[in-house]
Amino acid sequence: MSLLSGPEGPITDAGWGHEHHRKGFFTDTSVCIGCKACEVACKEWNQNPADGERKILGSSYDNTGALGANTWRHVAFVEQDGDRIEEARESGRRLVSLGMPGIGPKESRTAEDGAPLDLTGADRSHPDTPEFRWLMSSDVCKHCTNAGCLDACPTGALYRSQFGSVVVQQDICNGCGTCVGACPFGVIERRDDGTISPKGSRDERFDQDVPEMGTAHKCTLCTDRLIDGEIPACAKTCPTRSISFGDRDEMVADARERVAQLHERGMTEARLYGANEKDGVGGTGSVFLLLDEPEVYGLPPDPQVPTAGLGSMWKRAGLSAAGMIAATAIAFAAGRK
Amino acid sequence: MTNSDFDAYRPPQPERKRRRRRAAGEVRRTGAGDGSREQPMVDDIQFDSYYGRPIVKAPPWKAPIALYLFVGGIAGASSLIAAGADATERPTMARNARLTALGAVLVGTGALIEDLGRPERFLHMMRVFKPSSPMSVGTWILSTFATASGVAAAGEIDSLLDEKLPLGPLRGVLQAVDGPAGAVSSALGAPLATYTAVLLGDTAVPTWSGARHGLAFVFGSSATMAASGAQLLLTPTAETGPARALAVAGVVGDLVGMHYTKSQMHPLEAEPLEEGEPGRLLKISEGLAIAGGIGALLGGRNRVVAAASGAALLAASALTRFGVLNAGLESVKDPRRVVEPQKARLEERRKAGVTDDSITTAG
Which bin fits A15, alpha (ψ -120 to 50), beta or left (φ > 0)? Predict the structure, then answer.
């Protein structure tokens, strides 16, 4: 397992060879309508149990809270007024463009059902007013190029799939929890609870024989579906194509095109998250188009894979160990009878 | 119709209740009252975080892991003391240190397994050796150390019992490998005591990640202090001269190391080490370490004072580990501890002219 991915990309580094394409999501939050169909489709397909108690969280229409062992898609809801929209626009203007060359029209590309993917005629104008806007964003595992969870896993339960995703082997994981702390996005989690409360009985709760308790869980990029040539459940169900899925290169190209479109319309608040290969995690497999600072959506503004500092940490541990040995040697040599 | 395995858990459907009547005086939130404007569902929202919710998650590590950090340190440093005592012909201290090392490493291994989500799969740790995973490296250090300490301690126990262990022909083997096993256990002692700092540092947990520059020095010193303290407690003063010196060195290293560690951290990352319950534990630990150090230095020749100092040092080391572990678990609860240091380092890089490594880009 590579410590940090090199220029060949994570799939080749993991030993899969060149014939595989790295897959990824492009989540365009500017067209998300907050329907949470992705959350539902994800839970249904992956048969994930409920997250502990049912609670009203007081965070707009988001009662899911956060990504976790049982929640692999999470839709964030943020309500903003005119001043904040202006601030977001201003912070977007200060961002640096990577100046990547654009790509030409993509007539050859098709949607998953085989029909030509032509969105040029679609009305993607922004529905918000100048005084008020909703931010809705469907968050998911980033499937990082340099994945902290993957590096930290001591059992080899986490692996890099042929699709470039990072997946937990449920029969191997022993639930040590190291990956949980190693994720700079707070995505992966150990499944320590899970209940079911049947429809129609809000108060009764039933302890469920939750599958795969005590092991780490997160988005698998629907590996089982990908193997059968299907796209992940969340992308398949998204009614606005806010979540699109495909080869990561194309997703990033789409994202760049879309952000340029929005900038042309004066929406300087639009920005990409995860498209930069030089960032702290080597670029993410799941790329996002955001309309405000990442922390507004609960995303870290400058995530770094912890493994990047591992060399220096081992050196310091070695130095400390040498100090212990030296101190012991000196103490005994000086105290010789 | 059953579509999913979970449907099997559904009880018979209860009768549908009528919708609850609105109680008198209960206000329903409406927009302008006439439905013409949207009413924000959230009052007084701050935009520097998502409803103040955590961004990163702490590992599910509880008291057994803190205990492991503590006894792992004792085990590692005790094996070094055993080697020193052996070399300088202090048989009582050598024996006590060997047995301390074995006892501590057994407790530690038990705590480590206990804290797994699936303890029965502990051996899955041995499927791979992964240099990128401090937990993997540590598990290999721990298991080798435990095996070697077990053999070395078995030799001690056998001679303690006047060769009464029912070993039969294996006694010759044990006596032959006794020395090398002790050497292996001593060689791995220091790594065992310090790798746990890497284990905590190699996370996205703000306080641990921020402490990565100095935590190894704290843990190494704390381990030395605790193992010396154990010998001050267990071994007669005639043999503990070097342990007294080591105890003082450990206390000094612990205090200086903690100061250095905090100096390298963003104030928001360091805060949990100073405030709240973890901060309190660390303050008590500091006091106990100073008291134990002074006691060992000035009164270490008195058996009672030595034992009391030793106990204080052990307690100080335990509290340090609990404090550092809990400070990390505390630090993830406030997203500011993630956002502010990250924004600061991003800004710092931008000031230094590096503008191409932000995860957020304009295109």
Answer: left
- Separation in Å, CA of B52 to nearest CA in chain A: 9
Contact B243 A331 (CB under 8 A): yes
Q: Is 0.90 topped by the overall pTM?
A: no
- Does residue B44 sit at the A interface (CB-CB below 8 Å)? no
Q: What is the pLDDT of residue B20?
A: 46
Q: State the 10-residue block means of pLDDT for chain A, 337 residues long.
A: 71 83 94 95 92 80 92 94 88 76 47 54 61 91 95 95 95 95 96 69 62 92 95 96 95 94 90 93 95 94 94 96 96 79
Q: Are A275 and A70 in contact (CB under 8 A)?
A: no
Instruction: Locate the domains of chain A by residue range.
Output: 10-304, 307-337
Nearest to B190 by CA among A9, A328, A250: A328
Residue identified by tokens 């309508």 is A33
Q: Do A300 and B136 touch (CB under 8 A)?
A: no
- By the CB < 8 Å criterion, does A332 face chain B? yes
Instruction: Please provide the size of chain A in residues.
Output: 337
Q: Which long-range contacts (CB under 8 A, 24 or more apart) does B2-11 make?
A: B4/A44, B4/A47, B5/A47, B5/A211, B6/A47, B6/A49, B6/A196, B6/A208, B9/A196, B9/A198, B9/A206, B9/A208, B9/A209, B10/A196, B10/A198, B11/A198, B11/A201, B11/A204, B11/A206
Mark yes or no for CB contact B193/A148 under 8 Å: no
Which domains, from first to last, does chain B contain?
63-330 (1.20.1630.10)
**pLDDT of the residue at A55:** 80
Cα-only R_g, chain A: 23
At the topology level, CATH places domain A10-304 in Alpha-Beta Plaits (3.30.70)
- Residue A198 contacts B, CB cutoff 8 Å: yes
| Residue A95 to residue B355: CA distance in whole angstroms | 9
Whether B5 and chain A come into contact, CB under 8 Å, resolves to yes
Kindly list the averaged pLDDT for each block of 10 residues, start to end, along chain B of length 363. Answer: 65 55 44 55 67 94 95 96 93 93 95 93 94 95 94 86 83 87 93 96 96 96 97 93 95 97 95 95 97 93 94 97 97 94 92 89 86
